[in-house]
Amino acid sequence: MIEDADLNAWFCREVLPLEGALTSFILRNWRRSDDVLELRQDIYERTLNGARASLPANARAFLFTVARNHLINNAIRARIVSFELVADLEGVVPDTDLFATDRNLDARDQLRRARAGMDALPPRCRDVVRLRKVEGLTTRETAERLGIGLDTVERQLTMGMRALVDFMLGGTGKIRRPRAVRRARSDKA
Known about the structure:
About 70% of the residues lie in helices and about 0% in strands. It is built from ten helices and no strands.
């Protein structure tokens, strides 16, 4: 709960300087200009009540959200819901990102898919990709930590990243070894 002195200081510092913009907003979005003073006072009261729990990070966005909601509620109560009012109210707060939740969900799905792709890699390949790409180790540090050669690290990283990209793009994510390596192995047998 915010102290009254802090709340009043915040209101005077952050909200009152927006009075001109708020008045213009009300005039643009309300049919009767006689109601502007009363509506503005109601919006200020609701803004103060809403900020009692904790001060909003963005006073402008908070104030205009309260204003928009108050005008909509009054329009519904008065049964004056015009398309112009609703259309104008949609563009009030350009600072808010309406698609942030969708992007977060997409990012989480991609992260789950990347983890599943990493889990599908053979153990050494997975360790090399994790150390190089996730932990950011150099090729030499990775080779020393795993006790393998530099060429092996590069080869495992290339195969692992190709398999991971294939998996992320909807493929099987299987490791595909270069033909020269397969031929050399079949010659030894």
